[in-house]
Design brief:
5-stranded antiparallel sheet; 9 strands
């Protein structure tokens, strides 16, 4: 058995801000993927996945039955046969490893599931997001449900506010374009929960809350609008502002060895860096108008192009 493939995701804009109702834009990233598989002879890695899934199954059994119900019997029977989640999605990198797993379990074992093929009204999307949030909380403590939603639908999702989300189109890639969105590998695994904890502690300070509302969310919203419209000139102006605000106010989320590189991008205008997910490690997201030049500048780092424009 090999289940359907579920892809990783990248939250282009909105990390942290969406907790406080900023806009956000999340896109599927097909480079990484995962699927449920059954195998009698499990590798060490697959055995760990199987054990984790057994705990997850117990957690799902206790979820609010009004929200979602699963065929727990079938799930546990498959787990006894050696089912695991076979995935190339790196964990702790902000690209949605648990999101793809949650989507695959919902797809295979949920009763009365909302499918991608039906007319996805806003109510259905919000219901899915709520279900996925409850499921993914097993891994993260508290989850918005966006990562699994993105993985499940395999569509870009525009977050207008907490209770207003919609699938969206993004400008087509221009393979010959010089501009690009890229990922930089920090080489460190990021832990979501401690980073969110730091953020929540900071939110107790009035100055931080003001900065979030007046600067961080303002620039994030503008970046989302510019990106969807394809207004590159305005986008890069707003990206620079956003990169600065993050550098000045989210230092703990930026791995120390990237502080200089981050600053250099802002000073030279050659590229701008931002957090990918909660930060603290994993990937760092970058934007440049000249990818060839940026590849040269960052040749000592692992760089992956995600999107060309």
């Amino acid at each position: 058995m090999k289940g359907p493939l579920f892809y990783s995701k990248i939250l282009l804009f909105g990390e942290y801000g969406i907790i406080k109702d900023s806009k956000g834009l999340s896109i599927p990233y097909n480079f990484y993927k995962g699927a449920l598989k059954i195998d009698e002879n499990l590798s060490v890695e697959a055995e760990k996945s199987n054990e984790s899934l057994q705990k997850f199954a117990n957690y799902l059994e206790a979820l609010d039955a009004h929200l979602v119900q699963f065929d727990i019997e079938a799930l546990k029977s498959d787990l006894d046969k050696g089912m695991y989640f076979d995935s190339s999605i790196p964990q702790g990198y902000g690209v949605g490893s648990s999101g793809a797993l949650v989507a695959s379990i919902y797809d295979k074992y949920a009763f009365d599931k909302i499918t991608v093929l039906e007319n996805l009204t806003r109510e259905k999307l919000l219901k899915l997001k709520e279900i996925f949030g409850a499921m993914e909380s097993f891994f993260h403590g508290k989850s918005s449900g966006l990562d699994p939603l993105n993985s499940y639908l395999s569509l870009p999702i525009l977050i207008n506010s907490k209770d207003n989300i919609e699938p969206t189109g993004i400008p087509s890639q221009n393979e010959a374009g010089k501009g690009a969105v890229f990922l930089l590998d920090s080489g460190i695994i990021g832990e979501t929960a401690p980073m969110v904890h730091i953020f929540m502690e900071n939110m107790k300070q009035e100055g931080f809350r003001k900065m979030l509302k007046d600067q961080f969310i303002k620039h994030t919203d503008s970046c989302v609008e510019d990106f969807l419209k394809g207004d590159i000139k305005s986008l890069f102006g707003n990206l620079k502002s956003l990169s600065k605000v993050v550098f000045n106010n989210f230092k703990p989320m930026i791995p120390t060895q990237f502080h200089e590189l981050w600053k250099k991008g802002i000073e030279t205008n050659e590229y701008y860096l931002k957090l990918c997910g909660s930060g603290g490690g994993g990937y760092i997201l970058g934007f440049t108008e000249n990818i060839e030049q940026t590849k040269q500048t960052l040749k000592d780092y692992k760089l992956e192009v995600v999107y060309n424009f």
